[in-house]
Amino acid sequence: MPLTERTDELKRLIQAFESEAGKFYPLTLSLLYVTQNAPSVNRQIPKPNHGIMLWQYYGAIHGDSGAAELAKNLNDSDLKWGIRGAELSCFGVLEGDGCELFVRMAQRAGALFDKAEASLLKSLMVKEIMEVELKRCSPAKPTAAANDNPLAVWLNYLLFHLSLTNPGRERAQRIDPDPFTLSLLALERLYSERSIDKVDRSVRQLSALRFKVAMSFPGERRQYVSDTVTALRPQLPPDSIFYDYDYQAQLAKPNLDVLLQDVYRNQADLIVIFLCEEYTEKQWCGLEWRAIRDLIKHKNDDQVMFVRFDDASVEGVLSIDGYVDARVHSPEKMADFILQRIQTSTS
Q1: Which of 227, 232, 278, 301 maximizes the CB count within 10 A of its CB?
Q2: For residue 178, which of 280, 276, 105 has the smallest C-alpha distance?
C-alpha cells in the first residue's frame, strides 16, 4: 500500500512519536563508516545500544572474475551485517535509554513504504556514490545495496530527509536532533508530501511570489494545519499558499527572520494565525507575530484571520477580536472558512 493510502497509520505514528519525543530520552543516533581497513571511529559503545547495517558500496565489478568474487562473498557473508569485502559500509548505531522502544517504533515506521517506495529510497541513498563511481570505473559495474529491514529503511529515510532539509548533516557521525524528534519531523513531512522524492513544491523564487494565504502556527499544531492546507490546495492555483514545508529548500538560508517577516507583511493577501498556548512560547511564531501586529497597527484588518485552539492569552489579541474555533471545526471546514475570506477579499 503506497504512502498516499496510509493516512490513518501516518496519523497514529505522528501521535506516538510526538508523545515519546516529549519525554526527552537521552537517545542518540550515530553513523559508523567501515572500510576494508578500519571503522571511522574507535570507541566503546555503551549499553543499551542497537546497531544495523544501512547501506554498502561493494565496489566496481570487473568482468566474470569480479562477478564470481561477489557471488562467493555473498555466499560466505552474514547478511545481517552486509556483504564481506565491501569497500564502504554505513552502520546506524542507536545508544541510550529508549533504544528498544525506538527500534520497535522505527520498524513500524519503516513498514509505511511499499516495495516500490522502499526500492526508490534505497537507490537515493547510494545515488551520489554510484554517479561518481560510474564515471570513474567505466566500463566496470559499480555495485551498491541498502538494507531491506524496516528499521534500516526508516533510518535511511531519516538520513534522506536530512539531506533535503539540512544538506550535509546526513553525513555527520552524530545525527541531530534525537531519533524520536527527527522521526516526528520526518513523519510530518511524509504526511504533508506523501512522497519521498521531493521537499520543495515550488520551482519559483519565494521572493517573487504573491500568496493568497499564509499560515502562521506552532509545530505542535502542524497536523491540523497540514490537513487544512491539503483541503485548501485543490481550490487555489499553484504557489497560492505559504506553508513552510512547501518551501523548505528556499527557507534553508541565513537571515531567515528577514525573509519570513517579508512574506507575512508584504507577500500575502491573507494571514491565518493559529493561536494557542504554544504560539506564545515559540520564537519563530513571535517573529511572525511582530510582522502581523504591524499589519494590524496600520489597520489592515482584512489581511488577518484568527483561529483558536484554546483560550491562552496572546499579547496584542483582545477579547473583542473575532476568531474561528478549531476545537469545533474540522480542518476541511477550516479550509472552507479560509476560502470564503480569500474570495471576500478579492471580490
Answers
A1: 232
A2: 105
